[in-house]
Amino acid sequence: KSFAAEFAPHGITSNALAPSLIATDMVAGIADLKDRVPVGRLGDPQDVADAVAYLCSEHAGFITGAVLDVNGGFLIH
Question: Are 48 and 70 spatial neighbours (Cβ–Cβ below 8 Å)?
Fold first, then answer.
């Protein structure tokens, strides 16, 4: 949020991404994790990449100082 406040007047946005339960080596072997995700699957690395691409695009030009949770609804429980 400090970066967002400092650089916003210069047209630079600053956000954070908070991925959870992404199908990577870190969560391999923990099969029951997908049952805890409301969308019914683990996230794919491409899901995270798509969120990054969005935040880097002109479509997100009015978003700054935000934390984007990429978690398939995991935190709504």
Answer: yes
